[in-house]
Amino acid sequence: MSCKTERTVNLRYFANHYYDGFQARLMEMDINKEIGSFEIMGKFDSGDTVDMRIIIEDEKYIGKGYSRGLIKTLCKYILQEGYPSIRKEQLLFIDVDASVGFWEKIGLREHRYGIGYTGKRTIEGAGYEKMITFEDLCKWAKVYSE
Known about the structure:
Layout: E1 11-18, E2 21-28, E3 33-41, E4 51-56, H1 66-82, E5 91-94, H2 102-106, E6 109-110, E7 130-133, H3 134-140
Antiparallel strand pairs: 1-2, 2-3, 3-4, 5-7, 6-7
Helix pairs in contact: 1-3
């Protein structure tokens, strides 16, 4: 009789600030491989669009809570290191992508000036399909609650 043993995976979250945004990464440390990332790109409180994206590289990591971990890591980092005085109402936007259903689960809602906006005014997030406030994103990630 043979006994199959499973390898324990050594995962770790990291967050950093870069020129035009913030990033959280999930790494498998034993093999130095990035498993996933979550990015918020743009300058807060600038009036310009701040957008985000999330990627989990391998299907075996999908549905195991790692996306929440990435978002929580980045929200905490931004609150502590990035912009300590960030407005809770800061809007974050996403464009149409392959994460169908994921963004709705988090609580993103339709942006009224989303896809197909042809107005003459420059509007924050124009052309982006969905939006959420920074506060609601942090609440979903269980960083804080009211």
